[in-house]
Amino acid sequence: xxxxxxxxxxxxxxxxxxxxxxxxxxxxxxxxxxxxxxxxxxxxxxxxxxxxxxxxxxxxxxxxxxxxxxxxxxxxxxxxxxxxxxxxxxxxxxxxxxxxxxxxxxxxxxxxxxxxxxxxxxxxxxxxxxxxxxxxxxxxxxxxxxxxxxxxxxxxxxxxxxxxxxxxxxxxxxxxxxxxxxxxxxxxxxxxxxxxxxxxxxxxxxxxxxxxxxxxxxxxxxxxxxxxxxxxxxxxxxxxxxxxxxxxxxxxxxxxxxxxxxxxxxxxxxxxxxxxxxxxxxxxxxxxxxxxxxxxxxxxxxxxxxxxxxxxxxxxxxxxxxxxxxxxxxxxxxxxxxxxxxxxxxxxxxxxxxxxxxxxxxxxxxxxxxxxxxxxxxxxxxxxxxxxxxxxxxxxxxxxxxxxxxxxxxxxxxxxxxxxxxxxxxxxxxxxxxxxxxxxxxxxxxxxxxxxxxxxxxxxxxxxxxxxxxxxxxxxxxxxxxxxxxxxxxxxxxxxxxxxxxxxxxxxxxxxxxxxxxxxxxxxxxxxxxxxxxxxx
Length: 537
Known about the structure:
alpha/beta; disordered C terminus; 537 residues
């Protein structure tokens, strides 16, 4: 009497709900075996797809057949045994070599004859065709969705799937935008951005902290400026963009410069990697010490920073974390704007931008014409690809270039239509950064934010004889610092008027005589007497 192994399988990702569950298959096979008077020596169940070889339980069944523990297999249908040519071929081969003497299926007739094996081969082929056809249908559906500007997968971090649409995740989106802005400065690594997310309790969907690889994927994903990358090909998306392409491109330049692997310090010292020794040029490292006070029965932690002496002997002594924090706050405060001044500057900027918006019709028309030309090129490129004039590789490469060009033009059109001037965005970024610097420098327990802001306004931090020095970045913060330093000797507040002279070099079209008049009004409001209009000449 032939001994049979009963094999039951149902993949967890199998779309066909008509296929019996494993429990139902077991019950059906037991009933079938009793009816046909078949001897089952073992039941083997498996929850894994059969479209690819490598199933452990299926391999166990074949091994038992090879060892002579059984000579037959019972299963609900041939597609439970194989949906790929390799596993199907193994079954046919074992039948040819008489290792398998019989196969039984409640839903399929089989006889161990040439005709029976031929029919079995057709059944295996149909199973493989079903998988291949299903896969192709899914790919075709995905491509069609992408052409319509729809994302076929789960929403990217910072977005949500709502009613089959991609919507902005209001909780996470603003932090994603800020992460791009911070990273674009070049002063922050992936570990810094990861720490920024964690400090603000922005976690993944499962509630865990973001991994460094996830942070890198976020910062290199074109999805955030409105372009979808799928299987190496770019598509224009209909979802709302969180950032501009210009900001994304700046981030990609920073990515190229990040050649060394970022290491995550287990203590996450806030100022680690920020400062170098002013004597020998080595990096400043940090140490944590604890001290027990017997009288009060408490233990206090202290953090000290010192020269790592990686470049040789150095005479510099350690410095307490609180002292570095104190000096950093003074530095950051010198490159800051108080709220009342920042508010006035933004009001004037928005007013001037509104006026320029009315004059920007010609610029928008030019960009729209260029966008139309790019669309026509895309259509001609597709025709060339369909006529087999262009290879698939060249088509994908040139199509990606055109998609990026259209995205950049669309971003410019949107920016000018909304703001009326290209200078407004960098102006707002500068003022908001200076305002944030003012808040952070006056806040308590803000070492992490203080470190990030210090990198925003300064570079080249050196520690010498326990005194911290830095170079203020050009284009705004250096001039803020110079004015603040000039006024500190007389204990007068920094001149708000001087704070905007820095914009003349980068935003000369913004500094108008009307604006200077408004600044003089602010001077009177602040009670500042030592302003000379020649500063704006």
